[in-house]
Every structure is written in structure tokens, then in C-alpha cells.
Amino acid sequence: MNENACQDNYEFLDCGHLKRLERVSGCTFLRQAPQADFPPSLKELWSSPDYEYRIESKGFSWNMTPREDEALPDFCSGSLVMEIRLSENGQIGVYPEQQNNWDWLGAFISETENPLRILNGFAYTGASTIVCAQALKGRADSEICHLDSSKSAVNWARTNRGKSGLPEDSIRFIVDDISRFLDREIRRGNRYDGLILDPPAFGRAKGGVTWILKRDLPSLMDRCRQVLVPEPSFFLLSCHDPEISKADLASALAGTIGRNRSEIETVDLILSSKNGNSLPNGIAARWSRKY
Fold first, then answer.
1. pLDDT of amino acid 291
2. What mean pLDDT do residues 157-162 have?
3. Contact partners, residue 239, CB within 8 Å, separation at least 6
4. Which of 15, 108, 157, 193 could form a disulfide with 126 if both were Cys (CB 3.0 to 4.6 A apart)?
5. What does each C-alpha distance from 254 to 151, 221, 225, 260 come to in angstroms?
6. Torsion sign across C-alpha atoms 205, 206, 210, 211
7. 94 neighbors 124 (Cβ within 8 angstroms)
8. Segment 18-50, tens digit of pLDDT
9. Which of 183, 263, 257 has the alpha carbon at shortest distance from 219?
10. What is d(CA 1, CA 201) in angstroms, rounded to the nearest whole number?
């Protein structure tokens, strides 16, 4: 695939009435956005989306205006290339609101010449993983580990690695529950220079085990503290739970890395529209060492 053919091809158009409208390479996607409890701004764009996710009495479905066998476009941002798929939960395989964090990760890693061992937990289809791997390309003794409990998400991330032009050995892929994985790493004495976490507000693992971010974040951060090197390089923590504030994230991060909260940057993750409504879609706290 020619990556340059679709660089920076994503546009967030509008949101409202609990939905969002976005465009990738000329194809429009209309899907859920529970936080958009206000009227849309650009009503003329909403009448005929190419792909619409619908919640119906019989379940969920995607309504497709194009032929069903027509290929979906890839999402592209610079050298990051992500394969789009229509998931049963209404996702398409990429979270564009993380663009600010991708830029931050890429800039920090590129600016330091140190070898880095990085763990991306809850890594989904691998956008942050790929950004890190591209910035580390050719740097000896560095490693990026991509961890997710979903085998299908990890396989999807492998596809995205290839589409983004990275060799097979550039990323270590692992399918596992993050708590179990971190417990093993603690016992083995394996340590990381940088951590990336984007945990869901709620999840359900095998055996009926539930994940509730507000309840389980302290134990997760304690495990993270134990797998960090004594002088870590960076930590990025994202959140999509409305019950958790930026101050909460900053406090959790400060306690984990042993830094003052004033050293930690907090940001809103926003899908910005040029002419329509923009969509707040999470928050993040991040810290990086000054070299």
C-alpha cells in the first residue's frame, strides 16, 4: 500500500443527538456518541452517510450505502496507517481523539537518544504502539511491548504494523490480562522506561471477572509503579470515565511515578470540527523526563 496516498485523511465533521459524523478518505461514518446530548450543527451533512451504525430492537447493525463488498479506506495520519473495520460495538478500530497524545509520544521519543523499553497496556489496535515503534526505529536496545486481552485486537494491531511500514520484529505483541501480565513482570524483575495506559471505564474478562476503572485504578497503578525503572522516562494515562477528573488522573500518576502534581500535564481529548460541533471524548494525564 502507498502510505502517502492517504496521509492525514481523517476529518471530524459534526456531532449531536447522541451521534457523531466523521469522514475518512471521502467516506462518512455516522455512529454513537452518548456525550453529544445537543443538536447537530451541520444538518445538511447528516442525510446520507456511507456507513451508519444503528441500534435496533433486534440488536446492532451497520447500514451501508456503498456496495457491501466495497473496500473500506484506511485511516492515515502521517506515517501511521490503521485498517478500518466495522465492529459490532460501533467502533471502527481507531480513536482519533488520541492524536494529541500520538504527537506528544512521537515528539518526546524522537527528542531523546536513550534506548527505551515501553509497555502499551490496553493497547487495542496499536496506534500508540506504532507511533512509539516508528520513533524508536533503528535505536538499539529499545523495545515496545503491545499488550491487550483481546486476541482479535492484537491481530488487528499486527495488520496495522505492516500497513505502517514497520518490520515484524519492531513490536512485541502479547495477548493477556494486564494485571496478570504485570504480576509476572514484577516477579521476573522486568522493568520499563515508559508506560502507556488507556483503560476502559468498564470491562469483562474471562471467567466473569469485571473491570471497573474507578475501583481498580489504584491497584493497577501500584503494579505499574513496580514495573517502572527507578528513573522513568514518561507515563501517559488516558481515561474515558466521566466519574474520573483530570485532578484524579494527575494524583494517580503523581503517586505512581513519585513526582509533584505540578510536573504533570493534563489535557482534554477532543474531536475538533472546523465548522460543526466538536466532541469532548476523554482526558489524559502525562509526564515526561526532561533530558
1. 74
2. 98
3. 198, 199, 201, 213, 249, 282, 283, 284
4. 157
5. 32, 10, 10, 6
6. negative
7. no
8. 999 999 999 999 999 999 999 999 999 999 999
9. 183
10. 35
